[in-house]
């Protein structure tokens, strides 16, 4: 059955507006999650950054709606990395200047992708400027006047990256990462954002997401070559997952909070290690966002 026609988004019943908003967000979140899955070390990064950004926004006394909008932009902040080759994303070592120059194109790519998208007016500037810094040494432009949401996202992205393992280094401890955040106050990170972030850290809130891909789901690492193994939203004992780098297949063992993986002795196929999004988790996460949305759904009109 075709959707009913309404003269405007506001004229449609609230239930229809919310359903349409969920469809718009799910399509973008699924795309962003597939892009994230191309990076073997970033499992759960988008969700963690989204959660930290919302928490930081509330700590800085923004409205719940504004904090929620910033958290949506945070989930989409890596969307432009769809244009970065996978061999650069997963390089087992530091990037060359030429490779880093390719990585720095992702905000510009995201801008092009979202320029005509209905959600663009809500999130675009915060995504496109999330890598700019107060010192003017960021990218892609190198200016010092990033919008407020971009400043929150930039700090949360960096903190999560520091406390996560990468192909060329182990994860930093939370204390080590916090010291870098403090040291870069007013340089890489906005001063007010740092002050609020330190408050959250001292309250013990900000680290509740570290090592998780979603609430109650801990990340695992490939015991053979090191990358992140993202567990599915809902799984059963002995369900199979695989490392995208070495293709080793593993069986999920244990229970919530005590999960580990054991090799099965088999190698995954190319299809089994292809980048995928956890559609069930995204649908539930988007439903939560839309149910808490207090602003207009004007952006849902295509």
Structure description:
43% of the residues lie in helices and 9% in strands. The chain contains eleven helices and seven strands. It has helices at residues 14-37, 45-59, 64-75, 86-89, 97-103, 106-114, 120-128, 148-162, 174-183, 191-202, 279-291, and strands at 212-214, 217-218, 220-221, 228-229, 240-242, 248-253, 260-267. α1 crosses α11 (279-291), α2 (45-59) crosses α8 and α6 (106-114) packs antiparallel against α7 (120-128). The two termini are 19 Å apart.
| Overall helicity | 40-55%
Q: Mean pLDDT score, rounded? A: 91
The assembly state of the depicted protein chains is single chain
Count of helical segments? 11
Low-confidence stretches: none
Main β-sheet, in a few words? 3 strands, antiparallel
Strand % is 5-15%
Query: What spatial form do the alpha-carbon principal axes imply?
Result: globular
- Read across the widest sheet, the strand sequence of neighbours is 5-6-7
The strand count comes to: 7
Rg value: 19 Å
């Amino acid at each position: 059955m075709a959707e009913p026609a309404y003269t405007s988004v506001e004229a449609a019943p609230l239930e229809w507006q919310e359903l349409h908003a969920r469809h718009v967000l799910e399509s973008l979140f699924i795309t962003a999650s597939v892009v994230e899955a191309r990076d073997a070390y970033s499992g759960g990064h988008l969700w963690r950054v989204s959660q930290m950004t919302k928490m930081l926004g509330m700590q800085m006394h923004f409205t719940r709606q504004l904090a929620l909008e910033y958290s949506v932009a945070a989930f989409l902040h890596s969307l432009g990395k769809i244009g970065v080759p996978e061999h650069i994303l997963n390089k087992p070592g530091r990037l060359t200047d030429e490779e880093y120059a390719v990585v720095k194109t992702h905000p510009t790519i995201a801008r092009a992708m979202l320029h005509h998208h209905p959600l663009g007016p809500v999130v675009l500037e915060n995504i496109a400027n999330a890598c700019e810094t107060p010192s003017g040494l960021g990218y892609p432009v190198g200016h010092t006047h990033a919008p407020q949401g971009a400043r929150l996202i930039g700090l949360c992205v960096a903190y999560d990256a520091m406390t996560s393992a990468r192909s060329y280094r182990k994860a930093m401890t939370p204390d080590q990462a916090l010291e870098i955040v403090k040291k870069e106050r007013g340089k890489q990170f906005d001063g007010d954002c740092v002050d609020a972030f330190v408050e959250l850290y001292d309250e013990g809130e900000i680290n509740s997401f570290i090592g998780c891909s979603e609430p109650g789901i801990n990340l695992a690492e490939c015991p053979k070559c090191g990358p992140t193994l993202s567990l599915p939203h809902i799984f059963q004992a002995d369900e199979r997952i695989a490392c995208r780098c070495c293709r080793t297949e593993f069986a999920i063992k244990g229970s919530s909070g005590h999960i580990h993986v054991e090799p099965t002795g088999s190698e995954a196929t190319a299809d089994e290690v292809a980048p995928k999004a956890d559609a069930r988790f995204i649908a539930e996460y988007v439903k939560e966002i839309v149910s808490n949305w207090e602003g207009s759904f004007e952006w849902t009109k295509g």
